[in-house]
Amino acid sequence: MSELFSIVLFLASAGLYALKAGRNTWWFIATLAVLGFFIILNITLLASNYFTGEGINDAVLYTLTNSLTGAGMGKYVLPGVGIGLALVAIFGILGWVLRRRRHHPHHFGYSLLALALGLASVDASPAFTQLTELVKSQSRPGDPDFGVYYKVPGKQIANPKYNLVYIYGESLERTYFDDAAFPGLTPELGALKRQSLDFSHTGQLPGTDYTIAGMVASQCGIPLFAPFEGNASSSVSSFFPQNLCLGDILKNSGYQNYFIQGANLRFAGKDVFLKSHGFDHLYGSQELKGALADPHYMNDWGLYDDTVLDQVWQTYQELSRSGQRFSLFTLTVDTHHPDGFVSRTCTRNRYEVGGKENPSFSAVTCSQQHIAALINKIKASPWFKDTIIVVSSDHLAMNNTAWKQLNQHDRNNLFFVIRGDDPRQEVIATRRNSMDNGATVLDMLGGDNFLGLGRSTLSGESLSTVFLNLKEKVLAWKPDIIRLWKFPTKIDKFTVDTEKKTINFSGSTFQLPLLLRVSDNHIEPLPESEYSAPLRYQLAGFAPRDDFIWIDRCYKMARIWQPALALSTDWCVSQGQLAGEQNVQRVDKTTWHGKAKIRNDRVDMARFEQNVAALKVGDNDIRYQADHFIFNVPGAPQGVKAFSGISRTEEWGRWSNARLGDAVTIEYNDPLPAQFELVITAKAFGQNVGKPIPVKVGDSEQALILGENVSTTRLRFSNPTGSDTLTITPPLPQSTNLGNILGHAPRKLGIGMVDIQIVPVSG
To answer: Using alpha carbons only, how large is the chain's radius of gyration in Å?
Structure first.
């Protein structure tokens, strides 16, 4: 009802302004902005619902404020393009409608009423309600009984006897295993489930309803609620650093913890979570793709389940033979929404509903076959008697092509356990939730029967049975859970670790580079990530008296405040205020200790404006003092007038990019010498390796031949015409998006340049 009411208010606002308000630029902009915000809110709600089925929730905010590297976006490109085009069209139509009476005199009363109706439409929209509720939930005082129910187990298992294989099935909820509803969908894995301890009523709670959240819930016994202000969790190099999780206990008990999946480990910060809690051996798409027999056998998210689970089996054998106590966690991906992927080795690769194939069900019937095959191999091995196998969904399926059929049933997460030492078969129908999974496994391994808010279903009482509505209770505990992140409020001394690329202060560790806005009782960490602006642009938005501490590569700050370090790629620490003094120190040790220097300088607005302008200079417009072109820092030497065809800066140098120009072109301020040597340190990419690469100055042309490793070549040129331009044309540029780096357009690479120098010669 509120959605319909908000739409009525929106139409009333637009209609009233179009018909009665008349001409006034300010009122037009204000009304268009408010109504445009209404449109964006509702498009955001529509897009979020497309992913989650539940609108704008913690899953949406967490994913957007964390690493998106490795996200499988292929199946969302067309919907995304459609939404973008729809936004452009709607804004165009809205602007045209609002300007219908632009030739009529302005009427203040109608303009004010139209704006008020627009604001009311925003306030009444479900999207705005969801967003404001999420913001409010972060700042509530919490519930005083959280400490009563949050329990910390012992740090280790006294006498560990079993190895652990823990299989997360992506969205593989228990509902799929209802043979009456979906006959023949899960025969292989369903048969194994019937031979197990099967926990049939594992519910889903807020903060446990997406992959990383389901992992945190099952391993730490808490929902994943993270702060969504400037100190977003993406800047943190530790994940719930004070919490004791299952991986920590296993590591403390002598286990080697392994995690293997097909997707990129960086996505949503899974790598940070696992490294923070006892996992020293992590393998994702980037780590495993080099071992692929067919490098093209990958889906939008990474490696198919048959590839990943084969790697799990190989690892299980190696670890078992070693005699070392281990845990081996894995996460499948083929059943990922919106419609999944079908591995090519499946014999079960098609499932029909109503006489028509449903791709999500097809992905499920294929993936469960691979999981069952892995379990059967383990069961047939000589090491099974010492192994506990857990099969669990990470969360309930999101909005996929099976969504309609799933929602016709009572939905629960999958969780069953197969023990090599105990062939007991039982369906345990106790009400429980996914936070109980880790505590139940810990209990089986010989540890405590509680873990955070989780309780072992075998010997404890789940909070799902203690509280009639645990969902409401969990939301009441949300501020208490967020406080477990323990973000610092003050900084005095800090430590920079250049090997780990971290900064530590007040008990928290953050990834570098990092910008800190410092006030008396608040520290705001601002990370540089795929979706945020570079730190110097973020610093340019600081107020004149804001204290800052900026830890980054020296050249990014030193060109402004410490010219002697302007070409250094070492780490530096800059402190100060934009309207006052700035101090830049080079980090000259692997472990470097610093002290925060909060200043109270006199405000100098001329200095402030000068600093802001310098911070906002575009990378290609930066000029530095050097006699050669150094490609691993932004900009160019002062002798270069302009350049093109060159990609972004990386730690080693820069690639040529044919999408930015057919050739690498460097135009100098002055004519190049009549006789000179071009000294170029570079490497070739792909098919350009070993091929002649034309290098031209005026009428003189030489062939440059490069290998796939960096080398230095000297080419002799005559330049009688006094040309001021150097042109390098890689013959076979290749399209790529190395590393699946979000926030950057795909590139066409030819050569990778480290250094170019012009050396005059006589005669």
So the answer is: 30
Q: What does the alpha-carbon distance between residue 99 and residue 21 come to, in Å, rounded to a whole number? A: 9
pLDDT 10s digits, 238-297: 678 778 999 999 999 999 999 999 988 877 778 888 988 999 999 998 888 777 778 789
Query: CA distances (Å), 687 to each of 662, 707, 731, in order?
Result: 16, 10, 9
At the second CATH level, the architecture of 621-760 is Sandwich (2.60)
Separation between Cα atoms, residue 490 and residue 527, nearest integer Å = 18
**Backbone conformation region of residue 512, classed left if phi is above 0, alpha if psi is from -120 to 50, else beta:** beta
Of 73, 74, 91, 109, the C-alpha closest to 34 is: 91
- Tally: H helices and E strands in the chain: 22, 36
Q: Which two tokens stand for residue 630?
A: 């150094």
Question: Which pLDDT score, from 0 to 100, does residue 84 have?
Answer: 67
Q: Which helix (H) or strand (E) holds 514?
A: strand 514-519
Nearest to 128 by CA among 277, 282, 3: 3
Cα–Cα distance between 367 and 374 in angstroms, integer? 11
CA distance 359 to 369: 16
Separation CA 745–CA 253 (nearest Å) = 46
Residues in the chain: 763
- Tell me which DSSP letter residue 17 carries: I
pLDDT digit string, tens, across residues 361-416: 999 999 999 999 999 999 999 999 999 999 999 999 988 889 899 999 999 999 99
The secondary structure of residue 422, as a DSSP letter, is: B
Nearest to 426 by CA among 201, 194, 203: 194
Residues of the chain with CATH 2.60.120: 621-760
> What does the alpha-carbon distance between residue 15 and residue 11 come to, in Å, rounded to a whole number?
6
Strand order in the sheet with 725-728: 640-644, 664-668, 725-728, 693-697, 700-704
Question: Which residues, 6+ apart, have CB-to-CB distance to 701 below 8 Å?
Answer: 694, 695
What is the 3-state secondary structure of 544-561?
CCCEEEEEEEHHHHHHHH
Residue 741: predicted pLDDT = 41
Q: Please tell me what DSSP assigns to residue 95.
A: H
Q: Are 46 and 130 in contact (CB under 8 A)?
A: no
For the chain, helix, strand, coil in percent to 5 are 35, 25, 40
- The token duo for 683 is 């490497």
Q: Identify the pLDDT of residue 236.
A: 56
What is the full DSSP assignment across 280-332?
A: -EEE-HHHHGGG-SSTT---SSBS-HHHHHHHHHHHHHHHHHHT--EEEEEE-
Distances (CA, A) of 385 to 303, 316, 318, 324, 421: 30, 14, 16, 15, 5
- First-last CA distance in the chain: 86
* Residue extent(s) of CATH 3.40.720.10 domains in the chain: 146-227+240-258+306-328+356-483
Q: How far is CA 268 from CA 116, 211, 215, 271, in A?
A: 39, 9, 11, 8
Q: Which residues contact 361 (CB under 8 A, 6 or more apart)?
A: 176, 182, 185, 351, 352, 353, 401, 402
pTM reported for the whole predicted model: 0.70
> If you search the block for the tokens 């530095």, which residue do you land on?
624
Amino acid at 699: D
Q: Quick count: other Cβ atoms within 10 Å of Cβ 655?
A: 27
* Residue 715 near residue 702 (C-beta atoms within 8 A): yes
Q: How many CB atoms lie within 10 A of CB 540?
A: 17
How does strand 432-433 pair with strand 202-203?
parallel
- Given a contact cutoff of 8 angstroms between Cβ atoms, the answer to whether 510 and 721 are in contact is no
Task: Give the pLDDT confidence score for residue 727 in this predicted structure.
Answer: 97
Asked whether 270 and 177 are in contact (CB, 8 A), the reply is no
Instruction: Please answer whether residues 466 and 163 qualify as being in contact, where contact means their C-beta atoms are separated by less than 8 angstroms.
Output: no
Cα separation, 401 vs 536, in Å, equals 44
Mapped onto helix, strand or coil, the DSSP state of residue 197 is strand
CATH hierarchy code of domain 146-227+240-258+306-328+356-483:
3.40.720.10
